[in-house]
Amino acid sequence: MDESIVHLLWNCDLARAIWFGSAWSIHTDCIPIHNPAQIVQNLISPPPEFQINWDLCEEFLLTGAIIIDQLWKYRNSRVHEGSTLCAKKILRNVSVLWLLRDWRGKVVLALSKKVNTTIPLQAEAEAIFWATSIAADQRLNRVCFKSNFKTCMDCLSSPRSDSHWRISSFMSQVCSLTSSHPSWSFKWVCREVNSAPDALASLVS
Question: Over the stretch 48-61, which tens digit does the pLDDT of each residue have?
């Protein structure tokens, strides 16, 4: 069996199933890749045949990074431990995490959990809903929720706007909670500012 990086991450049956099972239904058998650098380049700058809108490129990059990470972990566990794992389980292996900071910016609480999706937009929406639910349970009245996913923040900043169908249920629940907490606010931040949750999520995954 060919054990090249390209075969493992792009051409083998498991990789093809996972890429096709992603939000963008990538047909890897129709997109020839000759070296690992091409895979990285396609994630950073998706070619036209991927049909990915420019505003979703960041989410596609994150999804691709997760897929590659999971495929590599699966390869190692199979080679060294003889374990088996189906594509469905790999697609679900995504973590969401949120941090609670006080008024000084100091982290006072960090929580993480697994979600049943490999789509970053859905994972982020669930993380926001989870955070608002806990804030409501703890009766926290003055909270600013921050996320580096602009799609979610735009939806919550302008509740009358239509949300992406993949997150409409979560966003509706968040808006319902927000209606009872007028001092809550939502703010988009760049990924660099939100690096702490991203780093911690990678440690707990």
Answer: 888 888 777 877 88
pTM assigned to the model? 0.48
CA distances from 46 to 49, 73, 85, 170, 190 (A): 8, 24, 28, 28, 21
Contacts with 127 (C-beta within 8 Å, 6 or more apart), sequence order: 96, 97, 98, 115, 147
Residue 56: CB atoms within 10 A of its CB come to: 17
Helix (H), strand (E) at residue 73: helix 57-81
- Domain 94-204 top-level CATH class: alpha beta
State the pLDDT at residue 28: 92
Element (H, E) at 126: helix 120-137
Domain boundaries, the chain: 5-91, 94-204
